[in-house]
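Regression check, calcium ion case 372:
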Amino acid sequence: MKRFGLFFLVIFTVWMQVSGQTPESFQYQAVVRNTAGEILSNQNVGLRIALHETTAQGPVVYQETHQATTNAFGLINLSIGSGAVVSGSFDALKWHASSFFLEIFLDPNGGSNYVPMGTSLILSAPYSLLSKKSSGPVSMTSQERDAITTPWPGMMIMNRDTRKMNYFDGYGWIEINGIRQADFTCGQPLLDDRDGSYYNTVELAGKCWMARNLNYGQMIQGIANQTDNNIAERYCYQNNPSLCETYGGLYQWREMMMYTTTEGAQGICPKNWHIPSDSEWTDLINATGGTNNAGTYLVQGGGSGFEALMGGQRNLNTGYPFANVGTRAYFWTSTQTNSNISYDRYLQNGTAQVYTEQTDKNFGLSVRCVKD
Ligand SMILES: [Ca+2]
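Current build output:
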């Protein structure tokens, strides 16, 4: 059997759909040749696209299939994001927060006997998909900036590594040093510059709390333990990244604490924020109606601004280690009972009570950070 190669992979133009009913997408163009270098012209081919998050070997967060016909020059044009969805949600991809790698599988006979053709980093797509969502320059890392193949003079980006504006002067990138006009005040969105995520914040009991669950780190499968490997890891309910978008990540206690047991440690929180202690949780609850009532006020739409969602937990069951999404919200504290157990608080749908319990550190619960 002949082996085929996509010799020439170009992601050249990213364009946005403006019709409300049409999904966002980006254009992908490739020339299909066989290994002898011969162009496959006027041929029906089947393709499967897989998007990996973070690294080329990272979790597959989206897959779709396409049928295409090469033209006389072997060229195919695909609109990624508008194929037949196999898994995941294109709209839920966090272009601004992560790197994505596009893996192509091809059946040169037009069927679904796909052969892997290779993986490449997507660079242009985040830029343009994101620019639809904001009128100003988009944020990216220095590495992503340097990978823009054809910056134009005057092009401007927000450098997420330095948190400064960069512009291209026709010869190279120039960084602008500015003067901070005002410090962060609670109630403003918090930018987590590790991944570009924003968190609403709310001041309660004299402390500034995240108003959304932390959603930082690399997703791993629920059956595996998070480990002390210098990689921040999270679970997503049902191993579904789009549920992390809604409910945030679920963290084992030791991972959340970044392998210290010091109450109030920064742990997995952004710089200058920390994991709330049990007493900080007590203060929060006392300020929002007390143990018997605070549940009413802490939930989304409850009026306190805390906006708790019932994100459920990662538990210790083999097979299906997730439970209680939609019915319970669990939050770790940084206060441990002993080396195996720590305090957490949970809310239950339809109940005003806020419960305190002591839970095995291997459970995966939600995390709210508090400003130092
Ligand atoms: Ca880890």
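Comparison notes: The first helix runs from residue 124 to 131. The pocket of calcium ion is lined by residues 226-227, 229, 231-233, 255 (CB under 6 Å). No diff flagged against the previous build.
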